[in-house]
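TASK: fixed-backbone design
INPUT:
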């Protein structure tokens, strides 16, 4: 949630503090951010750890949250990322907490035993960025080979 922006107070919608934002909530937040701060571009950080992948680093001051972020443009998520866990014991703990068989992750875990460094990462939805930048109404218009429930082949 943005500092100084409270959806219940400003928009009449209450969002549970540890729940994920659905598409409608993201779009409403985008409109609210624009009205209050006059920008289409904003970032949310410190997502609940339970909503992020097992390899996302928990916050040092409150392990219910993660060192992660999403970047939005006009109420649409365009980038998602965060700090990755680099400590073996914490990684194993998170794998177990996410009900993943540790044995299936042994090679991944071993890479950290042999010197993985602190790092982060992110993914960009390039087709979504192009759609929003060009003001298009459908992401399929930005894809060379769009797929949907009616078509799996180009």
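OUTPUT:
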């Amino acid at each position: 949630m943005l500092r100084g922006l409270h959806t219940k107070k400003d928009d009449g919608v209450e969002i549970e503090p540890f729940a994920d934002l659905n598409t409608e909530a993201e779009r409403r937040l985008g409109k609210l951010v624009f009205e209050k701060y006059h920008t289409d571009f904003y970032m949310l950080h410190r997502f609940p750890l339970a909503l992020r992948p097992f390899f996302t680093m928990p916050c040092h001051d409150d392990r219910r949250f993660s060192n992660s972020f999403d970047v939005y443009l006009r109420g649409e998520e365009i980038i998602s990322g965060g700090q990755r866990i680099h400590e073996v014991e914490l990684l194993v703990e998170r794998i177990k907490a996410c009900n993943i068989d540790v044995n299936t992750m042994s090679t991944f875990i071993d890479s950290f035993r042999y010197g993985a460094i602190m790092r982060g990462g992110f993914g960009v939805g390039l087709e979504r960025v192009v759609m929003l930048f060009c003001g298009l109404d459908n992401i399929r218009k930005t894809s060379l080979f769009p797929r949907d429930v009616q078509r799996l082949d180009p």
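COMMENT: Residues 106 and 129 are 36 Å apart (CA to CA).
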